[in-house]
Amino acid sequence: MDDNTFNLVIGVLALISAAASTFGYYHSRLPSQRMDTFDEILGRTKTLFVTAKEDGLIAGPLQRTINARIKTLESSSLEARALAYGPAQSLGVGLIRRGLPQKIEALIVEARALRLFVAVSDM
After folding, report:
1. Interior CA angle at 82 toward 98 and 115, to 5°?
2. Is the dihedral of CA 114, 116, 117, 122 positive or negative?
3. What is the pLDDT of residue 116?
């Protein structure tokens, strides 16, 4: 194989690798993927909360506070969920322009903060 062919092959492989990496990054940033992340974090938070409640590690007033925050997160996510999984999801660019990823990211940050609050409260 001569040098030109080798350089061409390496160039094509680099281009394919860059395209795959770019696709993977943007795919992970799609609203539907971020909602899956939110659902996973909220699910773990609920599991942690239920376990701590059953073990008697969280008192009554604190239980009500945490439960209310979980319900608030769930209701806040309904609009974002409808947009993320709705027919407009295929028009991801429009959703990104309207700030949907930022809304979902705010929900994720709030869910992580609640999980941390539950974890610290049951100590």
Report:
1. 90
2. positive
3. 92
